Amino acid sequence: MKYFPVFLDINNRPCLVVGAGNIAARKIELLLKADAAVKVVAKEYSAAVLELRAESGIHCETREFEDADLDNVNLVIAATDNTELNTRISTLARQKFIPVNVVDKKDLCTFITPSMIDRDPVQIAISTGGASPVLARSIRTKLESTIPASYGDLAALIDTQRQNVKKAFPDVEERRRFWESILEGPVAEYAFSGRLQEAGTLLEQLITESSSDPDYQGEVYLVGAGPGDPDLLTFKALRLMQKCDVVVYDRLVSKPILELVRRDAEKVYAGKASSNHSLSQESINQLLVRLAKEGKCVLRLKGGDPFIFGRGGEEISELIDENISFQVVPGITAASGCATYAGIPLTHRDYSQACIFVTGHRKSETEDLNWAMLSHANQTVIFYMGLDNVQRICDSLKAHGRDQSTPAALIEKGTTPDQRVILGDLNSLPNLVEQHQVSAPTLIIVGEVVQLHNKLSWYKTGEEIV
Question: With CB atoms 3.0 to 4.6 Å apart as the test, which of 114, 312, 331, 457 could cross-link to 343 if both were Cys?
Answer without folding.
Answer: 457
